[in-house]
Amino acid sequence: MVSRNRSQVKDHLGSKVLNHPELRNTKATEYMSHEEKYRYNLSRATAMLKLIDEEGMDVNEISKVMSHTVSGFTTPDGNPLAVHQVMFVPTLMNQADDDQVSRWLGDVFNGTIVGTYAQTELSHGTFVRGLRTTATYDPASRTFDLHTPDVSAAKWWPGGLGTTANHAVVMAQLYTDGQPRGIHPFMVAIRDRETHRPLPGITVGEIGPKLGQNTLNNGYLLFDHVKVPRENMLMRNARVNEDGSYTKPSHQKASYGTMVFTRVAIALDTVDALQIAATIAARYSIVRRQGEPRDDGQEPQIIDYQTQQLKVLPHIAACYVLRASTARLWEHHTHVTSEVRGGDTALLPELHATACCLKALVTQDCSEAIEALRLSCGGHGYMTASRLPALYAYATAGATYEGENTVLLLQTARYLVKQAGGSHAPPAAGSAVTYLSRPADDTPFAVGSPAAYVAAVGRVARGRVTEVAAALQADRQTMPEADAWNQSLVQLVAAALAHGRYFVVREFAEVVSQQSSSRAIQQMLQLLFSVYLAHAVSRAEGDFITYGGLTPSDIRLNRRHLLRLLAELRPHMIPLTDAFDLPDRLINSTLGAWDGDVYRRMFEQASHSPLNTDEVPASFHQAMLRSKL
Ligand SMILES: CC(C)(COP(=O)(O)OP(=O)(O)OC[C@H]1O[C@@H](n2cnc3c(N)ncnc32)[C@H](O)[C@@H]1OP(=O)(O)O)[C@@H](O)C(=O)NCCC(=O)NCCSC(=O)/C=C/CC(=O)O
Ligand SMILES: Cc1cc2nc3c(=O)[nH]c(=O)nc-3n(C[C@H](O)[C@H](O)[C@H](O)COP(=O)(O)OP(=O)(O)OC[C@H]3O[C@@H](n4cnc5c(N)ncnc54)[C@H](O)[C@@H]3O)c2cc1C
């Protein structure tokens, strides 16, 4: 397959799955049992993997398939092979050495090896250094002894581990020569390739129901002194030689590379979920009429209420703005990864800092936005068939997995305060933090000027970062580092989010300025940007007064400006969501179909309820009448 960008891959696969003999026909899964749902989603995930294979995609393109637009259709209850595709395969590609890649990859691609990424334990997820699974090297047998010291160190959460995977990349504390060497990845067979039974010493199973995505097939895993050959430690970065001598990786956190990649992918993908939710809410807000009839005798379309415009329209603008910045992050990741593979890790700290704060900002914004969009659909938004609950469950999981958001924002803050204090290597040209070492942009604030808003967002970021850096510095003189850090946690998180917001708006400003193909498109992008900026100010008015140079009068003007902009955007709402180019079957919502035939669809989906099969369900007689209540 020729190289395509992510959006082309998504469109291409979208049309392929809609016409694929094993994928095109869907079933409603709401009334299936846990086991039936798993079987249905697994068989579709497998058909999808075959399709990817037929398409001849390379590993980089496989990760693009993660697009929620496509995977939400193929595996509506969660893809049991997602972690295989998005974490296991990339970990092998990036952390196994060339010999190991050639040893395993054939079996991975012919489906003999199905894997997961087993890092989190019952008692440790965030604090990776605290993981307690051990891998102790024995030079005599040239094996590692993998062991779970007690139940709190059981691996817990890995996707696909429950009943699907037969291999895992296990992150464990390495010991050689009696010395702890930190967390390292090991390729471990956990189930027999033929029988799929757990191998000796392995205890494995599924962890049970969750808020959503119940067929991700998350699992638990314990090791009772399982012997793993030396050649199964992934050795692209660190090495253990036969005699037990140990070679350190070129970068201390080289083994955390998969997490950086997945954070970037999650940020991109959560915007897909927001686009779907925004399309559903926009279409429903046009169809739905309710209230005192107007002069034309019709009840108003709910989108004509100002409050409804505020609930829906800023999130459509956010789709455009966040799509652009996450796409830029993806490009940046691709570039830095190739540098790191070539041995140059100079750009890694900033990539890590940016990936952490964008993953956090995007998943937080998108999950809040999807919930607001769900509420904007009133009672019907609460129906499973609206798809909005599942979209929320998907987006909010992204706020926790792959690094809990607060924790990731603190990683970004750590980088920012070091930059502000000059204790980090100076940023490279084009870095996203150069503004911290320059005087603040003093462009005066003016409603109607996107450049003035961007400057104000920059002043907020700069003000937040420099203020907390100074507070931290002062506290460090009087108390231990951990206490000083803890005294500033809330402000550090706010500083990292402000930095993330500045990154996002600068990237979009560039997109708008570079758009030259059509004046009309540029004007529309400007309008979307203005809505996003005015909404951002309205959500953080205190910050814009405290750090951004806005006066209370500017704040009042901005509130009015935002409402005017929403009225201006309102006639474009449907074209702007149609432009996401989401076929009805990929949207899969009673409220969000293109033809707006909402009420017929709602009745149609109710007909699937098993409680409607008989006029009087047997359960009624069994449970109520017999109990003579
Ligand atoms: C919170 C973390 C980052 C702390 O890690 P720790 O080892 O304790 O950090 P230190 O305090 O020792 O060192 C900080 C130091 O290291 C740099 N750094 C940290 N991470 C990276 C990285 N990935 N790449 C480059 N550099 C990194 C950091 O910048 C500091 O540098 P200094 O120069 O300032 O010293 C860590 O524990 C962590 O990442 N926790 C989150 C755990 C997590 O994300 N788990 C994911 C599990 S898999 C999953 O959830 C799958 C989901 C399914 C799906 O995605 O579908
Ligand atoms: C759907 C799903 C799928 C997952 N898939 C996988 C997988 O495939 N593989 C895998 O290995 N893992 C997986 N995970 C696990 C996931 O990565 C962890 O749950 C996540 O990293 C958060 O860690 P935790 O659960 O330890 O949260 P905790 O760290 O216990 O978080 C609880 C609270 O403590 C706070 N907190 C913790 N540390 C700090 C700190 N230093 N400073 C300030 N506040 C702090 C957090 O902010 C949060 O409010 C999955 C999780 C989910 C929900």
Tell me about this structure.
The termini are far apart. The strands form 3 sheets. Strands 1, 2, 3, 5, 6 and 9 form a 6-stranded mixed beta sheet that branches. Helix 9 (348-376) runs antiparallel to helix 10 (388-397) and helix 14 (489-514) packs antiparallel against helix 15 (519-539). The protein is of the alpha+beta class. The chain has 3 domains: 6-108, Acyl-CoA dehydrogenase/oxidase, N-terminal domain (Butyryl-Coa Dehydrogenase, subunit A, domain 1, Orthogonal Bundle), CATH 1.10.540; 115-249, Butyryl-CoA Dehydrogenase, subunit A, domain 2, CATH 2.40.110; 264-291 and 300-426 and 446-576, Butyryl-CoA Dehydrogenase, subunit A, domain 3. It has helices at residues 6-19, 34-54, 59-64, 68-74, 82-95, 98-109, 257-287, 306-341, 348-376, 388-397, 405-420, 450-478, 481-487, 489-514, 519-539, 541-546, 552-569, 573-578, 584-587, 598-606, 618-625; strands spanning 115-118, 134-138, 143-147, 155-156, 167-176, 179-189, 202-206, 219-223, 226-229, 239-240, 246-247. Bound molecules: ligand LYYUSVKP and flavin-adenine dinucleotide. Flavin-adenine dinucleotide is lined by residues 83, 117-120, 125-126, 157-159, 213, 216, 218, 397, 400-404, 406-407, 410, 489. Residues 256-417 form the Acyl-CoA oxidase C-alpha1 domain. Keywords: FAD, Fatty acid metabolism, Flavoprotein, Lipid metabolism, Oxidoreductase, Peroxisome.
